[in-house]
Design a protein that fits this description.
Elements: H1 2-24, H2 63-73, E1 78-83, E2 86-92, H3 97-108, E3 116-121, E4 125-130, H4 134-142, E5 147-148, E6 162-165, E7 177-178, E8 182-185, E9 200-206, H5 209-215, E10 232-236
Antiparallel strand pairs: 1-2, 1-10, 2-9, 3-4, 4-8, 5-7, 6-8, 6-9
Helix pairs in contact: 2-3
Length: about 240
């Protein structure tokens, strides 16, 4: 009985020590969950670069000097204008040198290929050289919408088949020409009221019937053809 009591007492002490050791054991820290590092990359938005259609810098202020020099190096004076209604051959006058050189320049740089006939007034004119295309607008922006000084000539009346430069009538006392927009006189009668108001710089020498076809095209209330009459131009050597 004494032996049993001693054994029980010894067992009790050993158990107490074990419990004490377990309770005194330094608890391990719970491992911290580490997430992968998140790299924040700021993406810079890059605007698409607009295409540069023209390499030269031309303005109203330097147009005389630029086209005087350009005209000496580019002496062509015949242009073909192609439309779905036919082809027109134009002879540009040498006695309107700035208008001739500018027109040749725009043909060679394919400005007119982005345009169309946008105004038709039967028995009067058909007008082209502009469009609602963004490319046309960007061409003109890059060329600063330069103007040309008037080159009026007494022997260049507004008769049927001539090509003349459009212009603004307001705030333009010098009657400077738009380099980009032109019109043909389609009327069979002389339009002398336009003489010395717009520069006549050439005439149709072949395909004059085409402007009659253009003039007969259906138009809307803004005098715009209901079916587009696009323009393509090439230089004749």
């Amino acid at each position: 009985m004494r032996q049993f009591t001693c054994f029980a007492f010894s067992f009790l002490i050993a158990s107490s020590i074990l419990v004490l050791c377990i309770c005194c054991e330094t608890p391990q820290k719970k491992a911290k969950e580490v997430k992968p590092a998140q790299t924040i990359v700021k993406v810079k938005k890059i605007k698409p670069k607009k295409k540069r259609y023209i390499q030269d810098t031309i303005t109203t202020e330097n147009a005389i000097a630029f086209f005087s020099d350009y005209g000496l190096k580019n002496k062509e004076d015949k242009v073909q204008l192609h439309t779905r209604l036919g082809t027109i051959t134009i002879k540009l006058y040498k006695d309107t040198p700035l208008h001739r050189a500018s027109f040749i320049y725009l043909v060679k740089n394919k400005y007119f290929d982005t345009t169309c006939f946008y105004r038709i007034v039967p028995d009067f004119i058909v007008q082209g050289g502009n469009s609602d295309s963004e490319v046309t607008t960007e061409f003109r922006t890059q060329l600063n919408n330069y103007l040309l000084p008037a080159e009026f000539r007494k022997r260049r009346p507004h008769k049927r088949g001539v090509i003349a430069a459009a212009r603004d009538w307001e705030y333009n006392p010098e009657k400077k020409s738009s380099a980009f927009e032109f019109y043909f006189i389609q009327a069979r009668k002389s339009q002398s009221h336009l003489d010395f108001e717009h520069t006549v710089f050439g005439e149709i020498i072949k395909g004059i019937e085409v402007i009659d076809k253009i003039a007969a095209a259906p138009i809307d209330s803004d005098e715009w053809p209901r079916k587009e009459i696009s323009i393509k131009m090439t230089i004749l050597k």
